[in-house]
Specification:
Blueprint lengths: L1 H9 L1 H18 L4 H6 L5 H10 L6 H12 L15 H36 L4 H15 L2 H15 L17 H26 L3 H8 L4 H26 L6 H6 L5 H11 L2 H29 L7
Helix pairs in contact: 2-14, 6-7, 6-9, 7-9, 9-11, 10-11, 11-14, 13-14
């Protein structure tokens, strides 16, 4: 197992090089000029040329890329063109912990709702609880965030006054209830459907009938025997959700006033702030790679028959 994990980690630098190269080229040849972004469209040509030379943008692309990689290895992602030349690493570090906290609570909410919902649907397959639970989950998942958020604000916050205005005052504040609900309801449908399908494959197995024949309680049969084996296909879905934690949700964080990485990336995208976009892309690549590696390790822990060479 350790050899397998080490081999997977050795591929990480190559993945980051490929990802960074593609993102860097998009930044160089994509729309928007960082020099014009800083000075404005009416800047004098001599001022534009001077700033371009100071930023090193007049050098060959390969030289610029190698310089960027050398700095990124030291966690120096350059300076922002939108936020008055502030270091990108500082901007991200101030916001990423907010995003991780909110996203982690939303993921916990998704697991606590989606998995039991899938178990209920599997145990009542073909009956009304099955159809009702899956349909309700799909309904929430099918409504876009930019539609659901104004409706929830109008009904729960301004109309019935059941929730406080959303925002961020710390992880213990009640203002994060609505962001957690909006972020968490999205994955519920996928988790419920995957749990239902996995449980329907596991429940007819011989070892489940043997466990029931031994007189074990039904809760023990479902949770200790059936669910443990049904979790294996779910690990991939959960790993993808974990990998998305540092990236945040662009639309949700903006509409609900959560000062996280998603809001930062949204602003950077429209401002063509390529240093921030590139840094967030690299962070996302690392996050998803490590999450997939965590999923592979979890496979071996859940099923001893799985062995890695």
């Amino acid at each position: 197992m350790l050899r397998y994990v080490a081999g997977r980690l050795l591929w990480l630098p190559l993945l980051l090089l490929i990802t960074s190269a593609i993102t860097f080229l998009l930044g160089v040849y994509g729309p928007g000029d960082p020099v014009v972004t800083r000075l404005g469209a009416r800047a004098r040509p001599d001022a534009v040329a001077r700033l371009r030379e100071e930023m090193g943008l007049n050098r060959p692309v390969i030289v610029q890329y190698l310089d960027y990689i050398a700095k990124a290895a030291r966690l120096d992602f350059g300076t922002s063109t939108r936020y008055q030349n502030q270091p990108v690493a500082k901007l991200i570090s101030e916001r990423i912990w907010v995003t991780v906290q909110v996203s982690a609570l939303a993921l916990l909410f998704s697991l606590l709702v989606g998995i039991p919902l899938g178990i209920l649907a599997a145990l009542t397959a073909g009956h009304w609880p099955d159809r009702l639970s899956v349909s309700a989950a799909l309904l929430f998942n099918s409504v876009p965030a930019f539609v659901a958020i104004p409706l929830l604000l109008a009904i729960l916050v301004r109309g019935l006054h059941l929730l406080p205005p959303p925002g961020w005052n710390g992880i213990l504040s009640t203002r994060i209830i609505l962001p957690i609900f909006v972020l968490g309801m999205g994955p519920v449908a996928g988790l419920a459907r995957q749990t239902r399908a996995s449980m329907l494959e596991v429940l007819p197995q011989d070892y489940i009938r043997t466990a029931r024949a031994k007189g074990l309680r039904e809760n023990s049969v479902i949770l200790r025997h059936a669910l443990k084996n049904a979790l294996i296909p779910l690990v991939t879905v959960i790993a993808l959700l974990i990998g998305a934690l540092p990236e945040g949700a662009f639309i949700t964080e903006n509409l609900l006033g959560v000062p996280g990485v998603g809001q930062l990336g949204f602003d950077a995208l429209f401002a063509r702030d390529y240093p921030i976009i590139m840094a967030l892309t690299l962070i996302g690549a690392v996050s998803f790679t490590l999450a997939n590696l965590l999923a592979d390790v979890a496979y071996g822990l859940l099923d001893p028959r799985i062995r890695y060479k």
